From TrEMBL:
Gene Ontology terms: cellular component: plasma membrane
CDD domains reported for this sequence: SLC5sbd_DUR3
Protein name, entry field: Urea active transporter
Family, per entry: Belongs to the sodium:solute symporter (SSF) (TC 2.A.21) family.
Gene3D superfamilies: Sodium/glucose cotransporter (1.20.1730.10)
């Protein structure tokens, strides 16, 4: 794939690890994690009443996940293998501008989602997926259109992850790339099948902790290596690299500037593409619905701002190491530069890790790639599972579906999509498509539904016709512009020309913004004014008689809950005071605007316009701030969930396992006297008391 310039293709690099190591990490570690998750699920059911045979628990964790775990899950949701590999990839091509724009293309979108999440909590608190919102407001035709758009989003997102992760695993271990592609989803399928969304939250936490510890290790190891030594020496290495290979489109041809034409073009298409990935990914809505009302805004805001440091710091350090040391004998591709295909397959980070840490660096790269891929793949699998169960099976095949029916269909969805995503990624691999191609073109297919979906939640005037027609026209417009510009600039339509920056950027912009015009014009022709109260008339949470009730409706106001709606000994149910939710909405709007202005406007654009080339002291400060931010993100992701209810729930589980209390006493003390993450329903308590008696 051609980005800025083509590099000479060279002979393949000998994998530093054996195939056995690859299979152990991908298969054995994945299965071990799945078995541990199954055990945790069983223990939580026994000690806290969390029953994943109940649909509300399986799909939304009873809507009681707290701020700390929500923030950690948000960070994990964007810890794609693409984020780790892609940020280093664009840093290698564009210099310091690349990782910054990669980070700036993610954080504002994550924080903005807090506004959508709290709006859904206020307007339709019993929803399980965003598609239910579309169906209730516009009917079945719009529902089907958005089902297709969301599935396209999830399919390409999974392909993007699997292509990059499988390429790295193959390069590090020699494992066959198709074997890696099909085995990566195995462990994910098992623990998602058993544990549902709560398993996703807990494994997100575990994976995120390991990934961030290794990322922080890389930032420390880079400067303890004798070839680098210090940030100042790394600056000198980057200057020398630019003299050997000037960067087309960068100020002075240097890697040390934010004035990068291709860098800012990537920033635009990456920002819009990620906007689509957030809005059209039902897993983000599921996690918002799973969070308690008071956890949505702080969880997504903290998670979004903390996440910024990961692609910025890791991408800057590792791409700089690769650029600075690729002329050294211990660099894997020496004496040649990395080839176009190696860079596009995401091998910048692992090659840099091998250079500074040998086989240990290769093993660490393999592990974090595996962790990142499986963690985010779990969210994608549960998202598609929710679509197939709630939005397809329940709506079009069996409206009277019970808990058991929906859990069965969810299990089918988990298995089906895991297998399908692996097969689809394999097909893309064999036609010559890699991580770089999907990273650039992703926005073309994910963006058409962005504004119609936002308008569905925030704008009462969007008409039914506008919601149905505008995303379809937007998709057609984006594809036409993408293919047309690829033919114009590249002289042909091929994998190489459709993966270039300019065609992808033009196509993404057209896909994203044309539906605004279509929606407004169609709405003006035949306007409709929707009454938000219709949402609240829909009873979406499942209820069954005879002590088989899910826990969505039946929480009493917990002891210690104050009038602000904040969690103190528990959380309120979905009838939380409307004024409190509106206040959270205003806070979300403020942070959304502030994050976008800070990360995308006030910080980078003046640096771009001034044509500033980093001096040594400025580069040192730039790297130090990014590393401090990264280490702070690690502390937030690991310790905040423990402080915010995690330790109390661990204590509750310990008491449940070691004390001979009655189940009723155990649940009562855990619910009223602790900050447990979830609270049992009266029905689940009575069921277990009856079992105890029998």
């Amino acid at each position: 794939m051609s980005i800025l310039h083509r590099r000479a293709e060279g002979s393949s690099v000998q994998p530093p690890l054996s195939q056995a190591v690859g299979y152990v990490v991908v298969l054995v570690v994945g299965v071990i994690i799945a078995l541990v998750m199954m055990l945790i699920t069983k223990v939580l059911k026994k000690t806290t009443g969390e029953d994943n045979k109940k649909t509300e628990m399986f799909m939304t964790a009873n809507r009681t996940v707290r701020t700390g775990l929500t923030a950690s899950a948000v960070i994990s949701s964007w810890l794609w293998s693409t984020a780790l590999l892609g940020s280093s990839y664009v840093g290698y091509d564009y210099g310091v501008a690349g990782p910054f724009w990669f980070a700036a293309g993610c954080s504002p979108m994550i924080v903005f989602f807090s506004l959508l999440g709290i709006s859904c909590k206020r307007k339709i608190p019993e929803a399980h997926t965003s598609l239910e919102v579309v169906r209730i407001r516009y009917g079945q035709t719009a529902h089907i259109v958005f089902i297709i758009l969301c599935l396209i989003n999830n399919i390409f997102a999974c392909a993007n992850m699997l292509l990059g992760a499988a390429a790295v695993i193959t390069a590090m271990s020699g494992m066959h790339i198709i074997a890696a592609t099909f085995l990566l989803p195995v462990g994910v399928t098992v623990y998602t099948f058993v544990g549902g969304i709560k398993a996703t939250f807990l494994t997100d936490y575990f994976h995120t902790a390991i990934i961030l510890i290794i990322a922080c290790y890389f930032t420390a190891k880079a400067f303890s290596d004798y070839q680098v030594g210090s940030i100042g020496n790394l600056y000198d290495l980057l200057k020398a690299a630019a003299e050997r290979h000037p960067v087309s489109g960068n100020q002075g041809g240097t890697y040390l500037t934010m004035t990068s034409k291709s860098g800012i073009l990537f920033g635009i298409l990456h920002t819009l593409g990620n906007f689509g990935l957030v809005i059209m990914d039902t897993s983000y809505f599921i996690k918002a619905f799973s969070a308690s009302p008071a956890a949505v805004v702080p969880g997504y805001t903290i998670g979004g701002i903390a996440y910024f440091a990961i692609p910025w710091a890791l991408g800057t350090v590792m791409s700089s190491v690769a650029l600075g040391l690729e002329n050294q004998p211990n660099f894997p591709t020496y004496p040649r530069r990395m080839s176009t295909s190696e860079v596009s397959n995401g091998l910048v980070l692992p090659y840099a890790a091998m250079t500074i840490a040998g086989k240990g660096g290769a093993a660490a790269s393999l592990l974090i790639t595996f962790m990142a891929c499986t963690s985010t793949l779990s969210a994608q699998v549960i998202a598609v599972s929710s679509i197939l169960s709630f939005d397809v099976y329940r709506e079009y095949f069996k409206k009277s579906a019970t808990d058991r029916d929906l859990i069965r269909s969810s299990h089918f969805g988990v298995i089906f999509f895991a297998a399908f995503s692996a097969a689809f990624s394999t097909m893309l691999h064999y036609v010559g498509i890699d991580l770089g191609w999907t990273l650039y073109m992703l926005g073309v297919v994910t963006c058409p539904g962005i504004f119609p979906m936002i308008f569905t939640i925030l704008w009462r005037n969007q008409s039914k016709a506008a919601a149905i027609i505008s995303p379809v026209l937007g998709m057609a417009t984006g594809l036409a512009v993408w293919i047309g510009t690829a033919s114009h600039f590249g002289g042909e339509v091929s994998v190489a020309t459709t993966g270039d920056v300019l065609p992808c950027m033009y196509g993404t912009v057209a896909s994203c913004f044309s539906p605004i015009i279509y929606s407004v014009l169609i709405t003006l022709i035949k306007p409709q004014r929707y009454d938000w109260n219709y949402f609240k008339k829909e009873k979406l949470a499942l209820e069954k008689l005879e002590n088989d009730l899910t826990t969505a409706h039946h929480h009493e106001t917990p002891t210690g809950a104050d009038d602000s709606g904040l969690e103190d000994g528990g959380v309120r149910n979905a009838t939380l005071d409307t004024k409190v939710l509106k206040r959270w909405g205003r806070i979300a709007a403020f942070w959304s605007i502030a994050t976008f202005l800070g990360h995308w406007v006030l910080w980078p654009l003046p640096m771009y316009g001034s044509r500033y080339i980093f001096e040594k002291q400025f580069f040192v400060a730039w790297v130090i701030v990014s590393i401090i931010w990264l280490w702070g993100t690690m502390l937030i992701a690991i310790f905040y969930p423990l402080i915010d209810g995690g330790i109390q729930q661990i204590h509750q589980v310990y008491q449940g396992l070691t004390h001979s209390k009655s189940i009723a006493e155990s649940h009562s003390s855990g619910y009223k006297g602790s900050d447990a993450t979830t609270s049992p329903s009266a029905a689940s308590i009575s069921d277990e008391i009856q079992e105890k008696k029998e």
